[in-house]
Amino acid sequence: MGCTISEAAKRSGLTAYTLRYYDKEGLLPFVDRTSAGNRDFKESDFEWLNLITCLKRTGMPVKNIREFINWCREGDATLQQRLMMFLRHQKEVQAQMAELEHCMEKINYKIWYYTKAVEAGTEAVHNKDTCETAASSTTKFITANVS
Amino acid sequence: MGCTISEAAKRSGLTAYTLRYYDKEGLLPFVDRTSAGNRDFKESDFEWLNLITCLKRTGMPVKNIREFINWCREGDATLQQRLMMFLRHQKEVQAQMAELEHCMEKINYKIWYYTKAVEAGTEAVHNKDTCETAASSTTKFITANVS
DNA sequence: GCTTGACTTAGAGTCAGCTCTAATCTGTAT
DNA sequence: ATACAGATTAGAGCTGACTCTAAGTCAAGC
């Protein structure tokens, strides 16, 4: 009816090793078994995997995801905890996004900086004086980003 | 003149252990030493640290950062490589940002979902039928995000 | 002169998250 | 019947990035 672990791996983009590891860690308690004892991934399992992958990629550790999965199985008594978990995680992801944007600015500056330097054939093009170091070009870069 | 490793740790937000580790890994070849052999962080070192931290936080592995630092010390012959490195990294960070935004949508949906469920006192508020599972609520969630 | 505190190094330990190995089992094709 | 492909498990191994320990050095204050 469902599919095997290697098919599930292909479809989810994870490896079969990783799926077994997640299962061992208690992240996939909903995955059924065939009479032979093989895992049998059904459609809804991929939706769980989707959510797990989303939480993982935003930096949630396996043990926190397990906690959430367990809450889901405990029913309505844990609704509040689950909501709070997502609110906490939302803040963390917002912070990550702000951090990425901040770093992106520096990267963009560096691209400008090195584009100019490559054009000129020398990093010295960025110096007021004739002889500054790479360190002081970084100074200017950071100063530029502050303003 | 400059400052000690523990002062540098405080100022950079890293630990002294981490600074020594970075140095051992070749990320801080520009940091001077006092006559006693102690590291002596000067102003420009913090700008390097700033850049290293930015690259680290956007997922660049230590060995790639070391490669970049080495290129910087080799002078103008490596300008092209440095530019290409930043262009590659820019793409990676853009992908990360897109990924974060995608995951954020799911998290936002979940917050809506659990807010409603907490209000109602039961997850069943999200079911058309009287008795669906948590898995099928995830189905609806993903479907909602596709549209 | 000696203690104290902060520094140094080499190298061991920790942790998360896989990744792989070895031994075994099972269903299908010849 | 037998081989084979692909599944299973327990548990070992790996990688990256720290994190800590142990043993030793050095400068300043009593």
UniProtKB/TrEMBL annotation, chains A, B:
TM region positions: none
One protein family per Pfam: MerR_1
**Matching InterPro entries:** DNA-bd_dom_put_sf, MerR-type_HTH_dom, MerR_fam
Tell me the domain of life.
Bacteria
Q: Keyword Membrane, does the record have it? A: no
Q: Does the keyword Cell inner membrane apply?
A: no
Q: Care to name a GO molecular-function term for this sequence?
A: DNA binding
Where is each HTH merR-type domain found? 1-71
Which UniProt keywords are present, listed alphabetically? DNA-binding
Protein's name in the database: DNA-binding transcriptional regulator, MerR family
The organism encoding this protein is Propionispira arboris
